[in-house]
Amino acid sequence: MRFGFVTCVQLGLSCMEAIYESGGSLDLIMTLEDDMAKAKSGRIYVDEFAAKHDVPVAKVRNINKPDAIEALAKADLDWLFIIGWSQIAREDVLALPSKGVIGMHPTLLPVGRGRAAIPWAILKRLEKTGVTLFKMDSGVDTGPILAQTEVPMHPQISAAELYNDVETAHVTLINDAFPKLASGKIEPVEQDHSKATEWPGRKPEDGAIDVGGSVHEAECLIRAVTHPYPGAFVENAEGRLIVWRAEIATDDYTGPDQTLAFPDGRLRILESELDQPEG
What we know:
By secondary structure, the protein is α/β, with parallel strands linked by helices. The protein folds into 2 domains: about 5-200, 3-Layer(aba) Sandwich (Rossmann fold), CATH 3.40.50; about 205-275, Formyl transferase, C-terminal domain (Methionyl-tRNA Fmet Formyltransferase, Chain A, domain 2), CATH 3.10.25. The protein contains 8 helices and 13 strands. The chain has helices at about 10-20, 35-40, 45-55, 65-75, 90-95, 115-125, 160-180, 215-225, and strands at about 5, 30, 55-60, 80, 100-105, 115, 130-135, 145-150, 200, 230-235, 240-250, 260, 265-275. Helix 1 (about 10-20) links the parallel strand 1 and strand 2 (about 30). Helix 1 (about 10-20) runs parallel beside helix 7 (about 160-180) and helix 6 packs antiparallel against helix 8.
């Protein structure tokens, strides 16, 4: 089996390392041109990893452009991983590998198709989420499932904690699934589309705290959109107060931390940042 990998972020690099830890190898790595990598937050370079394992690298500006398609076709791949890549692969790319293109999604598909999987899992107060390895098709997270692993959640979990748990689960899933892919022992299983749910994307403005609502909803929102996300916030006379960490205050709490009042209780702010308007 011949494998390729498309990525430009740390998660993708961690998954490539897991492939080699499981005894596998890659025949092509595709990533962004260096100037694009410099301009994007959180991007990594694959050169050192590729040199260490003697893997050819193709640097492209867009995975759907002729130079990228030519490089993928020349590699004559059976499977192509696309993990940590913001551009949507079109039909021309999906059709190139003989067995297909593999994506990973941080939910237990068919639940939670779409965006903002980590914040939504917390906002929906799920008892567990997970990571799904699936064969990509022209839909959004709709392709056949190759493997899944569960990620347990607890009532006070934050986005930062769940983000780390999900990244670890990606690596664990690759470690377990890659040998089966390489030996042809994984059979794609169609998703039960009748059980599918779709989670919409979220904008920074969706982090607004409703002080007229429930203190429990506000506390959950703060956990759901804390680091590495933009954060929950309230507007005041000084600007926008971003609340990174908070807890529901006991009835007898008197300070010194700042609190926010709600009809059904108060929030004790444990970590915050004032984003003051310019001018």
